[in-house]
Structures are given as C-alpha cells and as structure tokens.
Automatic annotation (TrEMBL):
It holds the Pfam family AI-2E_transport. Belongs to the autoinducer-2 exporter (AI-2E) (TC 2.A.86) family. InterPro entries: AI-2E-like. GO terms for cellular component: plasma membrane. Its main location: membrane. It comes from Bacillus infantis. This is AI-2E family transporter. The chain crosses the membrane at residues 9-29, 35-54, 66-90, 161-183, 216-241, 247-269, 276-296, 316-343. It is found in: Cell membrane. Keywords: Cell membrane, Membrane, Transmembrane, Transmembrane helix, Transport. It is a multi-pass membrane protein. One of its GO terms (biological process) is transmembrane transport. PANTHER family: PERMEASE PERM-RELATED, TRANSMEMBRANE PROTEIN.
Length: 369
C-alpha cells in the first residue's frame, strides 16, 4: 500500500466522506445537525451583512471616545428612526403601486398577449412568419403555462404561510441581538479562536482571519453602496420615461444588483414586461434606461467604490454564479462570491505556508549535505 504524503491525504479525505455519508443515513445523527444549520443560517447571514455595514460607524464613534455599547444603542435608535421615516414617506406610494399591480395582474397578462399579437402581425415581423422556430404564439403560450403552473396551486401554497411568518418573525426578533453581540464582542471572538494555538500558528491564523475579514467587509459594504446607487438611478430613469410601478421596479433592481453580472438581467425581465404591456416603445425605453445605468455603474460607481479588492476575474465570477445558482438557487448566487473570496484567502495562505515549509526543508537538507 502506498505510504506517501498525498496518498495519506487521500485516505483521510475518503474516510471523512464515508463518515459524512454514513451520518446522513442515520436520522437521529444527521437530522438534528441539518435542522441546526437550517435554523441558524438565515439569521446569521442577515446578521453578518448588517454587522459589516454598521461596524465602521461603531469604530468611528469609538474613536471619538464614545463607549461601544452606547455607540451600538445610538446606531439602533438612528436605524429605527430612519426606517420609520422611510416607511412614512415611501410606504404609502409603495403600497399603492403594489396593490395596483396585484389588482391589475390578470389584465396585464392579457395585455401582454395582445401586444404580442399586434407585434406578430406587424409588417417588420412578417419575415419571421415563414420561420416555424420563433413565433409569438409559442412564446405567449409558454408564458401562460408558466404562470398557470406557478399560481394555480396558490391555495395549497398558502398553507405554509404560517410557518413562513413564524420564521420571519424569529429572524426579526433574533437578528438585532445577534448583531449587538457581534459588534460588541467580535474582537474577543477572534482572540478566543487563537488562544490555545502555538505562537507561529496563532500568528498565521490571525493573519488569515484578518484577510478574510477585510475581503468580506470590502465586498459587503461596497456592494451595498453600489446597489443603493443603482436603485436610485433606476428609479430616476423610470420616472423620466414614465413607466408604471417605477418604485417597485427600482427596488427589484437594487436588490438583484447584489448578484454580480446576472443581477441587472434579472431586474430587466419584470421591467420589460411591464413596459411592453404599455407599448413596445416603452419596453425599448426601459432597455435604454438599464443600459445607461449599467454603463454609469460599470465605469464610474463600481470602480470607485468596489475597485478590484476581491481580485476575481469576471469569467470566474460568472462560472461561480452559474454553479451556485444550480446548487442553491438565489441564496447560493448571493453568497457565492464572498464565499469564494474566503476560500481563496484560505487556500492562498495554505499554499504560502506549504512553500515556506518546503523551502525550510530544502535549506536543512542543503546544510546537512
């Protein structure tokens, strides 16, 4: 049996995978672990994002001799006040647009089909009539079947509303406490992780944790600022062209912008559908607004705010998003890039330590020779 280092590593990996596989077959072992991670994942994900957004403010106030606990409580009061003001000024308009969208949803679907029929009968589209591969009848039938399949069983889906509401309430209640203790004791947590390690390993672990923290901090803070700017620009652009539900569509664009590259295309779909129900020319204006905003974002706001701190090639990001989307859906696409940044930091440090140890061994062999 081979006894080299790489074979031993392979044996270890195989043994760990076999143990994990066997654990998944034993319900009383794996099910509690699965429930544990499912319960904690979303609260800690949201808390982590909020922590990185609020931490610079806490550090700034702390440098001004304001105690950390007082700083956190002051920020909480400001956030609560800002949220109340936002709901007061923006809430009525958002509620009106959302209610109007829900009330007119069937008419918009029918209007979309009528517009498609008009476009199909137009002169410039006549050249497609001889082509059986692309027809608006086929497209509209597919869209209608999609919406029917997703909304026909709406009554059965409503049975899970109570559990969803319970989960949301749990997150809303627990997240402020988690964020409070993260802001208050984050430095102590990192010190506790390296307390029992040897000096050299503790120093390397602190460096890895520091680099991981910087990667996450720069990405989350930068992405939040960029997404907010994109949302504001989209709202202004939608107001200029006069599209319906401009506030809802701008919020959708702001939220989907956290997904690199694919986010703008996800936000474009509902905006084009709404614009197309008004007129084909409005759909073209929507596309023009999205192109202009993305050009400003790609050439001005993102380079100035995000820079190249993650140093990840765009093709790598696209491949990561495609794989993460198939594995974990929308949540996977959101967390894929920062997770890749963390893994990249760990692997780069592990490789650096390996090369240092290899160089030390080579030097010792040369001295002995």
């Amino acid at each position: 049996m081979p006894s080299s280092k790489w074979f031993k590593i392979g044996y270890g990996i195989i043994i760990v995978m076999v143990i994990i596989f066997l654990a998944t077959k034993i319900d009383f072992i794996f099910t509690p672990i699965e429930i544990f991670f499912e319960t904690l994942f979303m609260p800690f994900l949201i808390s982590g994002v909020i922590y990185y957004l609020l931490r610079p403010i806490v550090y700034f106030l702390n440098r001004k001799k304001v105690p950390k606990v007082v700083s956190i409580l002051l920020i909480y009061l400001i956030v609560i006040g800002g949220t109340a003001a936002l709901v007061y000024f923006v809430g009525p308009e958002l509620q009106r647009q959302f209610k109007d969208l829900m009330d007119n949803y069937p008419q918009y679907i029918e209007g979309l089909r009528n517009k498609a029929d008009e476009l199909q009968n137009s002169a410039w589209f006549s050249r497609f009539q001889e082509n059986d591969y692309i027809t608006f009848d086929y497209i509209t039938e597919q869209m209608s079947s999609y919406f029917k399949s997703n909304f026909s069983d709406l009554s059965s889906r409503l049975t899970g509303v109570f559990s969803i509401v319970t989960s949301v309430v749990t997150v809303i209640v627990t997240v402020p406490f988690i964020v409070f203790y993260l802001l208050k004791d984050s430095e102590g947590a990192s010190k506790g992780m390296v307390r029992y390690l040897p000096y050299f390993q503790a120093a390397e672990t602190r460096k890895i944790l520091k680099d991981m923290d910087e990667a996450l901090s720069s990405y989350i803070q930068g992405q939040a600022i960029v997404s907010f700017i994109v949302g504001v620009m989209m709202y202004i652009g939608y107001l200029i062209i006069g599209i319906n539900y401009s506030l809802i569509l701008a919020i959708v664009a702001m939220l989907t912008n956290v997904i690199p590259f694919l986010g703008p295309f996800l936000a474009l779909v509902p905006a084009v559908i709404v614009g197309f129900t008004m007129s084909p020319f409005m759909a073209l204006k929507v596309i023009l607004v999205v192109i202009v905003v993305q050009q400003i974002d790609g050439n001005v706001s993102s380079p100035l705010i995000m820079g190249r701190k993650l140093d990840v090639h765009p093709l790598t990001i696209i491949l990561i998003l495609l794989v993460a989307g198939n594995l974990a859906g929308l949540i996977g696409m959101i967390v894929a890039v920062p997770a890749y940044a963390i893994i990249k930091v760990i692997i780069s440090h592990a490789y650096r330590l390996y090369t240092l140890k290899k160089a030390d061994r080579d030097q010792i062999i040369q001295v002995e020779d």
